[in-house]
Amino acid sequence: MTQSTIIAVTDPSAAGEARRRAVAMASSFGWPPEDSGRLAIGVTEAATNLVKHATMGEIHLRACGTGYGDGIEMIASDRGPGMHRVQDFLRDGFSTKGTSGEGLGAIERLATEFDICSVPGKGTVMVARFYRSSSVVPSLRVGSIQSPIRGEDVCGDSWGVRFEDGAAVILLADGLGHGIGAATASRKAVEILMGSVVTRPLALLELVHGALRGTRGAAVAIARIDFAAASISFAGVGNISAVLSRDDTVQHLISPSGTAGDMVRKMQEFVYPWTPYSRLLMHSDGLTTSWKLSEYAHLVGKDPALIAASLFREARRERDDACVVVAQERK
Fold first, then answer.
1. What are the E-state strand segments in 189-309?
2. Which of 2.40.240.50, 3.30.565.10, 3.40.50.300, 1.10.3730.10 would CATH assign to domain 4-131?
3. Which of 181, 216, 253, 294 could be stapled to 242 by a disulfide with Cβ–Cβ 3.0 to 4.6 Å?
């Protein structure tokens, strides 16, 4: 199960709250003090920057990596003024607010992985992943961001990734409705992914379909990337949007109508080519389907988390839970 938390950054006290949640997450994974300290400083700097420079800022924290609690990903997203020359802001001593100007540069140095994208007039999205010293960084970068509908404490959308020998399996589930009932169904789907030895998406989807009987049910999409075979296999049911992009081509993956755990007309598995430059993008119907990948050309070559966060920020529907997952091989 993917552990995650969101902190709305609206005033200076949010920096302390973000730091406390980050340290608590690292502590739950048994991180040593030096690794937890790097994370704490990075999160504090990011939240402080949002307070000083942005409006409608958020910090998203989630567990990442091949093993339990190997890493923690931080995404800082805002609708602030943006930056014309991002590299200037990464340089120590550069500041527009009369401060010491060490925030972004410090985060970049402390993090295991760091990337940032800023569009003047739209805002800035930054990702920083912190891995404990003993961890192995996975070859597939998976970026994700999710949030419950306003007024709910839990998100009815859930996702997970399971790393295998030479492959990775990603599942995204959107529980029907909102709240605890929706979350129970979608989390059950992720539990099946993480606890099963089944590798093929169609077989996994059939297991999920049976396990979700008695729950509200969910729309479910499952993709398995086989690096050695240079292929991606996909099976889904319901309105999870899945897009595979390669170079200048965009392919929408096929998912028939229905609800896992309730009524499914026909389950099928489809296989598509995968290259080291392919990108998989999946999202629930908490995002509109009117977005176009061509409008995000400025994110080509950027970390998948930046794509996920930018799409989330600009295409999210406010009347539903939302989750977006983007995966691409590390170059």
1. 218-226, 231-237, 241-246, 249-252, 270-273, 279-283
2. 3.30.565.10
3. 253
